[in-house]
Amino acid sequence: MRWLGLDVGTKTIGLAVSDDDGRVATPLRTLSRSGGDKDIDALARVVEEFQVGGVVIGLPLGLDGTEGLAVHRVRALGTRLAQRLGLGVAYWDERFSTVEAERALISANVSRQRRKRVVDQAAAVLILQGYLDRQRAGQPEVEEGD
To answer: Which strand (E) or helix (H) includes residue 89?
Structure first.
């Protein structure tokens, strides 16, 4: 089954997609947020285009693991997406994913201008790959919802 990974920010949503076997995550694109139904519509088009069977959304927990306003917004988006598409939605702890993605891009000598365009996609890859690796290892879900 193919998975879609999301790194949800206030202005953009980074997207990554897995291969058909759900083993390897690759960057896809970055969507500019329009808000509400427009974001759901854009994600629905991606799900249809890539025949996605499930969605993994990065959960922006606080450094101490607490859930703030950003987590509630992400969960609301996940709930609406699950209801609209009838797909399972899993949540993955995304603490440090953007920082880690930025470091990887710097290590690869990606220019600052290009990094700004792809960092959200790279973070989505880390979120999705972490989830896929855990699934393959047979470990129980961290959290699934909707």
So the answer is: strand 88-93
Q: What is the pLDDT of residues 63-108, one digit of tens each?
A: 787 888 999 999 999 999 999 999 999 999 887 666 676 677 677 7
Is the separation of the CB atoms in 123 and 14 below 8 Å?
A: yes
Q: Are 46 and 87 in contact (CB under 8 A)?
A: no
Residue with tokens 């607490």, as numbered in its chain: 66
Q: Which residue, 74, 96, 83, 53, is CA-closest to 143?
A: 74
- Cα four-point dihedral sign 130, 136, 137, 141: positive
**Residue 114 pLDDT > 70:** no
How far is Cα 58 from Cα 55, in angstroms, rounded to an integer?
10
CATH code of the domain containing 140: 3.30.420.140
Q: How many domains, in total, are found in the chain?
A: 1
Q: Residue 26 is inside which H or E element, if any?
A: strand 25-32
The helix (run of H) or strand (run of E) holding residue 39 is helix 36-50
- Euclidean distance between CA atoms 141 and 98, whole angstroms: 22
Read off the pTM.
Answer: 0.85
Query: Which whole number is the average pLDDT over 38-64?
Result: 93
